[in-house]
Design goal:
Layout lengths: L2 H27 L6 H17 L4 H19 L6 H23 E5 L13 E6 L5 E2 L6 E3 L9 E6 L4 E9 L4 E5 L2 E4 L2 E2 L2 E12 L6 E13 L2 E7 L11 E4 L4 E5 L9 H4 L2 E2 L3 E11 L13 E2 L2
Antiparallel strand pairs: 1-2, 2-16, 3-4, 5-6, 5-16, 6-14, 7-8, 7-13, 8-9, 10-11, 11-12, 14-15, 16-17
Helix pairs in contact: 1-3, 2-3
Length: about 300
């Protein structure tokens, strides 16, 4: 079968599907407007086409052309109006989008540099909302629990006291002991290994002037929970040591930190994140624009780890 014939066959099948749906709707909602003979013939056509489709296409096509002629003469005036069909399609699409956003996937934009170099300001990413279980929308009530976040994963969560979302990396889970000593992090008494990669610069916007300046840092490859990821440190950071301490992670809670260790407000400063506050796990970047660097095409469709 050549391409032209295959396409023609496809078009006929699509027309049949549409006519079938329209006829079934008329028989289900407006049968009283049809004569007994029209109702009987419509049902017979549907049954015959169902038996023929798609085993014998030539017979099917001939029968469908008869049905098409019958539909236009007797049923066309009883179908849904174009406006109603379009409105229903829009409403269905909106409902599906809302369900997906509530339970499956949600878009998120990186507003700050706390997760540099893994996530940059202006990265747009998708969040997997079902991986940690499902919640009643706009509440912290979970009705299905799949699994809990693991060390090394990047999670999005809501801080109830601020009413906005944050994104950080999980360092410690329930029962863990996390100790922070300057730029060194210990998990259950063991130092998290980090390998020096080299110098790293990124643009940072001045809050007062609106201008961008380059920030010089050192880039390291850190390993936690079997996950290798980049972090950046500022050797002369004035914040180094401010979050030092030993933290025993509470029940149903997480200890989180940003990958930009010297430019991140996280569990070192405002405590643990309760599991009920977690919205989902970062999946991949679908767009990247902003942060003083324009469109970063090399980041689009990049999976997050």
């Amino acid at each position: 079968m050549n391409i032209k014939a295959a396409y023609k066959k496809y078009r006929i099948k699509k027309r049949y599907e549409r006519r079938r749906e329209q006829t079934e709707w008329i028989l289900g909602h407006r049968r009283e407007r049809l004569t007994e003979e029209e109702s009987k013939k419509a049902t017979e056509y549907l049954n015959r086409l169902k038996e023929l489709h798609p085993s014998d296409f030539q017979k099917f096509r001939a029968e469908f052309e008869k049905f098409e002629d019958f539909f236009e003469k007797h049923l066309d005036e009883h179908k849904k109006g174009a406006l109603r069909e379009n409105v229903e399609s829009i409403l269905w699409a909106a409902a599906i989008a809302l369900l997906l956003r509530a339970f499956v996937i949600e878009a998120y934009k990186i507003p700050s540099g706390s997760m540099i170099p893994t996530l940059l300001v202006g990265d747009h990413l998708f969040v997997n909302k079902y991986i940690y279980g499902l919640k009643i929308p706009f509440t912290f009530i979970k009705f299905f629990d799949y699994r809990k976040p693991e060390r090394g994963e990047i999670v999005i969560f809501t801080k109830p006291d601020e009413g906005k979302d944050f994104i950080k990396r999980v360092i410690g889970i329930e029962g863990d002991t996390v100790e922070v000593r300057g730029h060194d992090v210990y998990l259950n008494g063991k130092l998290l290994e980090k390998e020096y990669i080299g110098e790293y610069e990124y643009p940072e916007k001045d809050e007062f002037t609106g201008d961008y300046r380059m920030v010089k840092t050192q880039r390291y490859l850190e390993t936690i929970g079997g996950v290798k990821h980049d972090i950046i440190l500022r050797p002369e950071s004035p914040l180094m040591g401010m979050g030092d301490g030993i933290y025993k992670v509470e029940k149903d809670s997480l200890f989180v930190m940003g990958d930009n260790r010297d430019n991140s407000a996280d569990s070192r400063f405002w405590g643990f994140v309760h599991l009920k506050q977690v919205k989902g796990r970062a999946m991949f970047i679908w767009w990247s624009w902003g942060g003083g660097q324009g469109i970063l095409f090399n980041r689009i469709f990049q999976w997050i780890k």
